[in-house]
User: Fold this.
Amino acid sequence: MAEKKINLTDQLKKYFGFDTFKGNQEAIIRNLLDGNDTFVLMPTGGGKSLCYQLPSLLMDGTAIVISPLIALMKNQVDAMRNFSEEDGVAHFINSSLNKTAIDQVKSDILSGKTKLLYVAPESLTKDEYVEFLRTVKISFYAVDEAHCISEWGHDFRPEYRRIRPIINEIGKAPLIALTATATPKVQHDIQKNLGMTNAKVFKSSFNRPNLYYEVRPKTNNIDKDIIKFIKNNPEKSGIIYCLSRKKVEELAEVLQANGINARPYHAGMDSATRSQNQDDFLMEKIDVIVATIAFGMGIDKPDVRFVIHYDIPKSLEGYYQETGRAGRDGGEGQCITFYTNKDLQKLEKFMQGKPVAEQEIGKQLLLETAAYAESSVCRRKTLLHYFGEEYTEENCGNCDNCLNPKKQVEAQDLLCTVIETILAVKENFKSDYIIDVIQGRETSEVQAHLHEDLEVFGSGMGEEDKTWNAVIRQALIAGYLSKDIENYGLLKVTDEGKKFLKHPKSFKITEDNDFEEMEEEAPARGGGACAVDPALYSMLKDLRKKMSKHLEVPPYVIFQDPSLEAMATIYPITLEELQNIPGVGAGKAKRYGEEFCKLIKRHCEENEIERPEDLRVRTVANKSKMKVAIIQAIDRKVALDDIAVSKGIEFDELLDEIEAIVYSGTKLNIDYFLEEIMDEDHMLDIYDYFKESTTDNIDDALEELGDDFTEEEVRLVRIKFISEMAN
Assistant:
């Protein structure tokens, strides 16, 4: 074939401006040019797209790229157009195009301008497109993100299963399938489903040496831990993955409140905001994106410096894919995952109601992820083993387990016990069942199989479950055991394992990390009498009293007691720190704060007090949307009872909300409402009472004022008073 003579390096330079190919790109492209089916396993950042972009420019006809994500298509088409003088060189067809745009695409294809056509699998199945494509010369088909075909993949899409029949309908041409993650099982599944079992397979190493992997315990202080981490890595780009949309929104708000330039991204947002946030991230207008896994497929930002998992991912493939977005340029990439057993239970709950087979698969994938998180073995070793690759280095030097190695213990006898038990139950059970037998638990399942009569039953009662788990996991990595994935993870003994049983040798294991014990950390000191500095507290009360006299306002108007308690606990010395105190908004800090900060600073210096360097996380009230809506409605002079009705809350709940707003320092003018419902003299009486009183307690006010006044009236005037006098 004439194709052989093409100097591919010249073509690469001509079209894309690169001098050399990466890894096995050139061999892959040659194979495709020769008209052969090709299967490419290449980790994120390895340059998969080039494997079909360059051949499409060199071959006759139009290449069809089947891709799952609309955002990704747009990015790739724009990139291709940048390389070419001709805009029509690449197009996409999906649901976002109108009729005129589709006609333009068709005309460019028929005139031979278009070398690359991106199609969503849903569009490919439409009859009108199938009919049209049958009239076109197809150079080859490329199936990107091919793991979507497999139920065992981390992102199964049923419409991917229809690709092969449709291709047969349109017309025969070579096929290239590409994926950045595939376990041996998924690989087999893809090839079978696409009818390309004879394809040449090109597999690159999945090792990303520049990525640092770490798993941390997830405690109540997770938001603080994340803020601390980001503040220690200023101006670096990062992605934080959360499982739920609600959590994405909340965390983005908390980060913004703490001065971090972050935005949310999830499928439930309107598409304009979503694309805007994505573009701002790519253009470095924002540093951090908080997202669900909808974000990032094909996002080509080379300098993402950290990827944080707020929640444990549903599978190791997903985890590999998502962490793989860090450090694509070969520079630093920190991958931090927060893990607690509780999250697993949550994820299992989500699976209820799905078909049994799907639940089983989901469970298996979750167990793998948990095993990875709890293991003390090198993270690289575990990850690469999962993808069917052996990592032989003793210490990778770039994961938490290698940098802080745990003591190893001899487990030769324990492994013999495990192997004996697996063989005794005929290699027909999963690891949790094996542990039940070893531990001598008479569960209903054990009894049903009469396994309580076996010799091995109860042979390991002296050890904890976590030790047995560690033995099994590390025996899998060492190759003494294997998992039958076809059958949901049944444990089998390998030939190596049988040899080991005959002639046992040293087998050292590291104990798993125990995440259960670390789960709940003591909550951060945040006010509360226990940690209050009594001397400082009384000085702050004196200062408040002095100021109240000078300003002729009651002391509580300046700061309430809980706020002073918190100050005497956390020792804020700047106005910014003061705003982190409950009940102190920006307005209050500005108006009254300076004196208090000076006093605290002086007290700390004189008594050599080490301030808690601990970062105080500014929380975002969950109801912040409600508060904003109330403020806006009052600005528009909407009657308060109407606001309560529109928000679906009781009137006294609305007053709670308004009180919280004015007490933290925001000015609200409710005169328009008071004038309507209250007698002016009445109002002045209550107002004067608060002016003279040393407390803002409602019960005390009602007692003093007598029966002519209702609680509601007193509360409303108190709001007016606090707003005018304190804010």
About this structure: The mean pLDDT is 84. The chain has five domains: 2-203, 211-348, 403-510, 529-606, 624-726.
